[in-house]
Amino acid sequence: MSVGARSVRLDAAAKTDGSAAYAEDRVPANALWAEVVFSGKPHARLLALDVAPALDVEGVVTVVTAADVPVNEYGLTMFDQPVLLGLDHTGRSLVDPTISRWEADKVAVVVAETKAAGVAGAAAIRAEWEELPIVGDLDTALDDATLVHDEVASNRYHQLRIRKGDLAAGWEEAAVIVEGTYEVPHQEHAYLQTEAANAWVEESGRITVETGGQWAWEDQQQIAHALGLDEHEADDAVRVVYAAVGGAFGGKEDMTLQILMALAARKVAVLGVDRPVHTRWSREESIVGHHKRHRGRIRARLGATADGRITALEAEVELDAGAYNYTSNKVLGNAHLSVAGPYEIPNVHIDSSAIYTNTVPGGAFRGFGGPQGAFVAESQMNKLAEAIGIDPVELRRRNLIDEGSIGVTGAEFPAGVTIPEVLDTCVERAHWTQPLRPVAPFSPVATLPPAAAVRRGRGVACGFKNVGFSFGFPERCEAEIHLHGDDDAIEPSEVDLFHGGSEVGQGAHQAFVQMAAEATGVDADAVRGHFADTATTGDSGSVSASRMTFMAGNAILGAAEEAEKAWRDGERPAIGRFRYTPPPTEVLDPETGAGQPNFCYGYMAQVVEVSVDTTTGHVRVDRVISTHDVGRAINPRLVRGQIEGAVVQAHGYVLSENLVVEDGHILNPRFSGYLVPGIGDVPETVDSVILELGDPNGPWGARGVAEMPYITYAPAVIAAVHDATGVWFDQFPLTPSRVLAGLREFATVKR
Questions:
Q1: Do residues 236 and 346 touch, judged by C-beta distance below 8 A?
Q2: What pLDDT, on a 0 to 100 scale, did the predictor assign at position 345?
Q3: Three-state secondary structure readout of 678-736
Q4: What is the pLDDT of residue 448?
Q5: Tell me, what's the pLDDT at 438?
């Protein structure tokens, strides 16, 4: 059996000994350097641009400007961003390319013999700007005195709503009401490999871009669009191939270098220079130049009867989209649903908005709106339990969705609702009803605090996350399998698997090989994988939305079945191609929010134990019990790695990572000032509890898991800190200074 085996990852040795080749390592021979020039202007109008001084710098070969972009626009879900800012001959564009709306809008790409020459050339470019008012935060954006985009009537450019039941009746029935205003912060992806790419023009004229990303097919389509090609011309004109990626977490779902490098390679070739082009961003460029987890503000009001039955929910979600949409409209949808939590609520009124500002764009990041919504939903539940005087686990049990439950959009949850079992397993493993276990003395402070100053607490949260694309987006995944063997062989001896899915650190390619082996009946070491190359692999869809195991597994099963038919017909090699399409989803009704948003969910619950040093404000997480129904663990070792990795990443989000953005500028674009947790900061113990209850549509019953452990961590930590100190925190990260301020305010109020 290959499915369920704890096999070692295909890339384990290479990533351990350092031989894995990332785009930064795969610099082609005789490559030129491409220096990307940021505007540095959060909001300004370009009045003049002179690149002639750059061309006079020794070693500069050419400069790519907006005049070189046939269609000067891009965007994963909305074409609202120019490829390059410029004045004349900027090509077709739906957005004004003379306006810099973000400090990392691009002005030019300097192609040079060396990096030093490229940097000197970039410094020589002369630009004249008219400064415009900076829309630096939500409050400034919402008065609409200055529009970030003149193409829209308001900075509040995308809105969703849910209207279910009779809200007034729900409040009348409620005996207890809790409400609050919550603020959620930005987060930097902090992947190890910063953005890097190589590009060249082949003898056939096809442009090849080698980089690291999450959806090679979509990268190809966006490059082709900017080049003025239609999707049918893309395969012959543009190839995208991924080297080792080095982490993504959603941060490599949107464009950074792909289009720019294709343009640079094309211009070099037009000049008659037969040389490839290479570039890589520094850590500072990476932090400034790619999107972040959305910051935002959520107001919520929750009511329940005296015995804990929820009667009404009202919420307003405001996400800061930054300067461009990226995937904000889709992230907003997840936050919109998640703010209600995994509960049966008869009366619901939710308004959600994505709002333009002149700051770093918000985009895809592990959880995709779920962490923001779950923080509010679960914090409200924990506050409600305290207000009623009921155990927070029991409150959840009385309101959790189950098989056949109707969600807030009026649609029945897809079959396979297992959150009651997940929660029960989690609290049982955590010994929820028992006193907290003793832990080691608080560390690593130099002078240990007195025992009375260290307080311990425990918190719980549970939730759900969609598997796959939502809200009517055309979901699909393709796979191709070749079976090899002798003409008279009964079974194949070797298998080639072609799949477009990216390996971004999660072990996807290992899972693909194991599923292909299981589907074709060969050993896993007899499967050769060919991945993430638009020249040889089909459209996998994005490696995001916790979808890839579910989608790829079903596509591989279909391809294996087609290949088996060809094998029985005597074809050698026997080739099977299959495009899997899951049950459809729906765009929500704009007035009521009615519709079926998703075809599958993953379910999770966490209990977190903390120690709080009340003299310094430091919070130590002693133990995390993270419980998940994964349907079927294709490789349990990889599942455990995903759970532990998500917990650590969420740990930084809630406790230490504080991106400082003022007047549209990121002020701490280095890890010396943006504190990602190190090995000494992460939770002492993570108990990964893996349930395999099975999804009716999943391959071998598998669901996704990659995002799920992240989503509930912040509210569980916040609840544990409250249990320890009596203080509720409605914003984070819980830096020592914020914790101390909360403790002092609480002490003042008590007096």
A1: no
A2: 98
A3: CCCCCCCEEEEEEECCCCCCCHHHCCCCCCHHHHCHHHHHHHHHHHHHCCCCCECCCCH
A4: 61
A5: 87
Q: What's the pLDDT at 437?
A: 87
β-sheet bridge partners, residue 352: 160, 317
* Contact criterion met (CB below 8 Å) for 440 and 579: no
Residue 177 φ/ψ, nearest 5 degrees = -130, 130
The pLDDT, as a whole number, for residue 89 is 72
Annotated catalytic, 707? yes
32-38/106-112 β-pairing: antiparallel
Encoding tokens for residue 686? 């993570």
Residue span(s) of the chain under CATH 3.30.365.10 come to 296-469+591-750
Cβ atoms 349, 167 nearer than 8 A: yes
The token duo for 677 is: 């947790």
The helix-helix angle for 328-338 and 370-388 (nearest 10°) equals 20
554: left (phi over 0), alpha (psi -120 to 50) or beta: alpha
> Which of the residues 24, 253, 318, 707 is marked catalytic?
707
CATH of 296-469+591-750, one of 3.10.560.10, 3.30.365.10, 3.30.450.20, 1.10.260.40: 3.30.365.10
Q: What are phi and psi of 618, to 5 degrees?
A: -75, 140
pLDDT of residue 9: 95
Kindly give the residue spans of alpha helices, DSSP state H, lying in 339-369: none
What is the Cα–Cα distance from 184 to 188, expressed in whole angstroms? 13
Low-confidence ranges of the chain (pLDDT < 50): 445-446
Count CB-CB contacts under 10 A for residue 657: 22
Phi, psi at residue 654, to the nearest 5°? -90, -20
Q: Are strands 207-211 and 238-242 parallel, antiparallel or unpaired?
A: parallel
Residue 730: Cβ-neighbour burial (10 angstroms; 0-12, 13-18, 19+): middle
Question: What is the per-residue DSSP string for 272-294?
Answer: T----EEEE--HHHHHHHS-BBP
Give the global pTM: 0.97
Residue 451 has a pLDDT of 66
CA distance 174 to 137: 35
Domain covering 32-133+203-281 in this structure, CATH number: 3.90.1170.50
